[in-house]
Here is the input.
Amino acid sequence: MLMEKPGIVIVGLGPAGANLLTREAWEWLSSLSEVYLRTAFQPCVGELPAGLEIHSFDEIYEQQESLAAVLEEISRRVLQFGRRQEGVTYAVPGSPWVAEDTTVKILAGAKEEGLPVRVINGMSFVEPVCAALGIDPSAQIAMVDAFHLAERHMPSFPPSYAALISQITAGMTLSEVKLTLMNNYPDEYPVRLVHAAGTDQQEVEELPLYALDHSPKVGLLSTLYIPPWEENRSFEDFQEIIARLRAPDGCPWDREQTHLSLRPYLLQEAYEVLDALDHEDMMELQEELGDLLLQIGLHAQIATEEGNFNMTDVLQSISSKLIRRHPHVFGDVQVKSVDNVLYNWEKIKAEERKENGNTHKNGMLDGIPLALPALTQADQIQKRAQRIGFDWKTIEPVVAKVTEELQELLKAQTPEERQAEGGDLLFAVVNLLRWLEIDPETALRECNLRFRRRFAFIEAAAAREGKSIDALSFEQMDALWEQAKTKLDELEHGDKAA
Here is the structure.
């Protein structure tokens, strides 16, 4: 069973005692004088063949600041020992092929150096954990390393899948795992911790997600199980529903839609999202965001069917763009202010246009869609001009410009002049709002809502007197308008205070 020349042998020690070691692993270990363990904290260590000198890399876990650094250093040392005349045998818990990053690193390094590597497999932690839970690992289940999950802000698997999370340890890592999971799951979501699977001390602990890091039983032999949540909670489930609607036996209306026929619905749903935001209604916002997402899903599905692109292309494109345009977050660029961020953003966009050959969008303002509402267009134009310094230094000339444009509008003689001057006045007002950090579109939309509510108050007052609103004089309507302002403003402010 010996290799022709020394090198590296990686042995899987299984998930529990020596009774779960493979015969091949036992025979190889019995032929050795020494073995190096990734960690000595595994059940079978005390049951290894007599006379075997045991070394471990446990001290590296205390010397390095991150798991990545630990695994890198262990792999480096194994490669170093593998160059010796006698080579090295390196043993890991479970299987070398399951949740064992050092195997991958060692194989890559050995390939570069021409070192021979033999891998003696072992039973992974998956089999005894699944047996303890009574689940089938061939079903929809994800396997995740706790250290990797702790570094994320969102789970890396859909909630409609079950998940086995290995490398669970007490302390900060487990707390970070919990916080990551709670971004997708309710605080009370039931989870299970499997301790010492396959051993005499095996135990399955059930607890709510919020209490995960409070368990006193968590140790190196613990695995976290996240049961699958109900269907239709993952992006993949959503895509399947859209594809089913568009299938030959799907919905006739959905099947006949095209990119162009869906245009009015996309705009309508976007405005309904804005309406929900205006009302600060979170339940309505949740529903309207779903309706807007439906439009995106339909466009992506149509593009998939026509062979243009699919949803993964959309996600890859926007993800790459966000990373590329945020080098101060995902790279080593240093920024001191929001202005620095915006300046870098425009600079990166210009470089992208040049690289992509978008000669029709070379100007800073070319990327502002003409389909945007006019107020939003004006605001975006002014903000982009401001990023390169084309702006006043103080607000006084901005205010003066509004007054100047108003006077020019009042002096205009022809309809064409009045329209042009009216546009200049609105543009100047948008600029003033920008200086005051007020979104003009939102400000006008909220103003419209206030007018509608107050006008409805006048209509209701007239109806209570058995009159139509057009039967009221201007003076009567104006008096009711003032009442509406007082009562509705008091009601609105009272609701916000509550």
The chain has a mean pLDDT of 89. The first helix runs from residue 23 to 30. The radius of gyration is 33 Å. DSSP finds 19 helices and ten strands in the chain.
